């Protein structure tokens, strides 16, 4: 049973480690990397630059056992309704279940339906890619615009960018923001005759998506006539009845199920744009990569289980060391949307303040997740990472090889920079080192003393590094699943429901109420003075 004693022993252990720097830990143990890194095939995670020891990992694994991580994991895979507040199973893993094993929800195997939708998606994607499915005037589609937001946007947009070297289908565009600029800028370069829209919304009620979809519909109707609309739209949703009301013909509607959370839906029909871009075979490899991580998560002992260890290190950083944020720093330009994707995955899942039974949580939960690709970030916010007063654990992601064989020297520089950053964060630069470096430049002693404090790097800043061979569809699927399960493990330890998102509702309700006030059609006098003042300022310009 998981008790306050477990937290206490972690805290005491953290306290005992306080006096020892990462530098000292490395100096004391030449085998530290071997002891504190773990691999699953070509996927390796180096935890040795985290502020922990082998004893810490052992303590954390016993915490995971006491918290029932394994039982909860098995309950998720077994289709139990672990999303208790919404009374739903959590089965995004079924979408990439490429085995013959059934997955049972409410007594029924969901796999036949999953396979049927996957096959229908494949047919549609192939038809489109081959130019057999055409627009109203018979021209092949050259451009596909996905209209969705949150989980109905970030997954496809992030993965499409990540797998650019595998694109051999039509061009993909993504419109998410209700800001008309997003739709207008996207449509500017497109030809209605050769553009297909996919309206992606789990609920088919999301105001941004519905507004953009209606405007896109008008764009098509104005250019090609109302009768052309059906040929230029497809939809992805769990709310098939609502899609029908929008006027999209049933053969162009791809369903999924309430046991797929929005932020876990890229494996479902929501992944259609990616499938159109890279083709059904490469999409199957993407699913296979995630399936591979699922198997690893289900079967590897906790001590060697990558998502479990990542989750535990997350808990250690958050609760024992008190770090409120973590930075995701992919040294991979094509993963530039991964931090945004992980923000939703992580912060919408674990940004919770009550436990599963509704009691306030006793410990801090999900951290702030943010980041940018290296090396760009190095020339922007890394200053704070190295010398700022807030310590932010970093997560580096890098591949052994890029896709640009003619630009291999670029990749070598990328790798060198990635390794240099984690080394610099860990080692820092002491006063003596800073002084010696300045002296070597021939500066006079007074100037050296003036500059030394500015040249010191405190170091001792934790990071982990994820390495894989290459960003293939398989590797990307595996990486996303790694993060999904990591978020799951953290949520179990914190005792929260990682699968609902009630916190997004209040703002939506208030926006609906404010719209008539923005339009000047309703009285705002009951609003607070700030909201009234801002309304007045915005309405007077
Ligand atoms: O507002 C949050 C949210 O509900 C996310 O959880 C979801 O991914 C997104 O909105 C989009 O929802 P839908 O797919 O239903 O349009």
Question: What's the short version?
Answer:
This is Glucose-6-phosphate isomerase. The chain has helices spanning 4-17, 22-28, 32-36, 54-67, 69-77, 111-129, 154-162, 180-187, 207-224, 240-246, 272-278, 280-299, 306-320, 338-350, 382-387, 408-427, 431-440, 445-455, 473-494, 505-518, 529-540; strands at 37-40, 43-46, 104-105, 108-109, 143-147, 171-175, 195-200, 233-237, 253-255, 325-330, 368-370, 394-399, 463-468. The protein is an alpha/beta fold and 541 residues long.
Mean pLDDT: 96
The outline comes out as globular
Share in β-strands: 5-15%
Associated small molecules: 6-O-phosphono-beta-D-fructofuranose
The structural class is alpha/beta
Count of individual helical segments: 21
Distance between the termini: 61 Å
Low-confidence region ranges: none
Structural description of this entry:
There is one protein chain. With 541 residues, this protein is an alpha/beta fold. Helix content is 48%, strand content 11%. It has 21 helices and 13 strands. It has helices at 4-17, 22-28, 32-36, 54-67, 69-77, 111-129, 154-162, 180-187, 207-224, 240-246, 272-278, 280-299, 306-320, 338-350, 382-387, 408-427, 431-440, 445-455, 473-494, 505-518, 529-540, and strands at 37-40, 43-46, 104-105, 108-109, 143-147, 171-175, 195-200, 233-237, 253-255, 325-330, 368-370, 394-399, 463-468. Strands 1-2-13-12-10-11 form a six-stranded mixed β-sheet. The chain has a five-stranded parallel β-sheet with strand order 6-5-7-8-9, sandwiched between helices. Strands 3-4 form a two-stranded antiparallel ribbon. Helix 4 (54-67) packs across helix 13 and helix 14 packs parallel to helix 19 (473-494). The longest helix is centred in the last third of the chain and has 22 residues, at 473-494. The mean pLDDT is 96. The chain binds 6-O-phosphono-beta-D-fructofuranose. The site of 6-O-phosphono-beta-D-fructofuranose (F6P) has 14 residues, from loops. Belongs to the GPI family. Keywords: Cytoplasm, Gluconeogenesis, Glycolysis, Isomerase. This is Glucose-6-phosphate isomerase. It is found in: Cytoplasm. Its main location: cytoplasm.
């Amino acid at each position: 049973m998981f008790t306050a004693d477990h937290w206490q022993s972690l805290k005491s252990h953290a306290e005992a480690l306080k006096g020892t720097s990462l530098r000292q830990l490395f100096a004391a143990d030449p085998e530290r990397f071997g002891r504190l890194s773990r691999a699953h095939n070509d996927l390796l995670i180096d935890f040795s630059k985290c502020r922990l020891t082998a004893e810490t990992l052992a303590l954390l694994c016993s915490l995971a056992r006491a918290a029932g991580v394994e039982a909860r994991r098995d309950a998720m895979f077994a289709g139990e309704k672990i999303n208790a507040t919404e009374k739903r199973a959590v089965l995004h893993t079924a979408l990439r279940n490429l085995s013959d094993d059934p997955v049972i929800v409410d007594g029924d195997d969901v796999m036949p339906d999953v396979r049927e939708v996957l096959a229908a998606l494949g047919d549609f994607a192939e038809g489109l890619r081959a130019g057999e499915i055409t627009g109203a005037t018979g021209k092949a589609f050259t451009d596909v615009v996905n209209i969705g937001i949150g989980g109905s946007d970030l997954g496809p947009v992030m993965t499409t960018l990540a797998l650019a070297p595998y694109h051999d289908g039509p061009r993909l565009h993504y419109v998410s923001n209700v800001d008309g600029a997003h739709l207008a800028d996207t449509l500017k370069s497109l030809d209605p005759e050769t553009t297909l829209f996919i309206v992606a919304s789990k609920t088919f009620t999301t105001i941004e998506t519905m507004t953009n979809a209606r405007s896109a519909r008008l764009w098509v109707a104005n250019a090609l006539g109302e009768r052309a609309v059906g040929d230029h739209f497809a939809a992805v949703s769990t709310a098939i009845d609502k899609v029908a009301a929008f006027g999209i013909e049933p053969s162009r509607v791809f369903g999924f199920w309430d046991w797929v959370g929005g932020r876990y839906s890229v494996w479902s029909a929501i992944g259609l744009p990616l499938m159109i871009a890279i083709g059904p075979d490469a999409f199957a490899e993407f699913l296979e990569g995630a399936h591979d991580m699922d198997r690893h998560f289900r079967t590897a002992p906790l001590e060697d289980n990558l998502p479990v260890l990542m989750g535990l290190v997350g808990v250690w950083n958050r609760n024992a060391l008190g770090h409120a944020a973590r930075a995701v720093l992919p040294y991979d330009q094509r993963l530039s949307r991964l931090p945004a994707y992980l923000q939703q995955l992580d912060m919408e899942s674990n940004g919770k303040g009550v436990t599963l039974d509704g009691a306030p949580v006793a410990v801090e939960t999900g951290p702030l997740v943010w980041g940018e690709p290296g090396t760009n970030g190095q020339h922007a916010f890394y200053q704070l990472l190295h010398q700022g007063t807030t310590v932010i654990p970093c997560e580096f992601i890098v591949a052994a090889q890029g896709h640009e064989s003619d630009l291999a020297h670029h990749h070598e520089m990328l790798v060198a920079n990635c390794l240099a950053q984690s080394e610099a964060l860990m080692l820092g630069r002491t006063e003596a080192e800073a002084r010696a470096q300045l002296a070597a430049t021939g500066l006079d002693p007074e100037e050296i003393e003036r500059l030394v404090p500015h040249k010191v790097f405190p170091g001792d800043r934790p990071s982990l590094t994820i390495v894989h061979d290459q960003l293939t569809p398989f590797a990307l699927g595996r990486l996303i699943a790694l993060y999904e399960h990591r978020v799951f493990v953290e949520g179990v330890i914190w005792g929260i429901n990682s699968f609902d998102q009630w916190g997004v509702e209040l703002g939506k309700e208030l926006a609906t109420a404010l719209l008539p006030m923005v339009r000047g059609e309703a009285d705002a006098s009951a609003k607070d003075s700030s909201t009234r003042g801002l309304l007045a300022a915005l309405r007077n310009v």
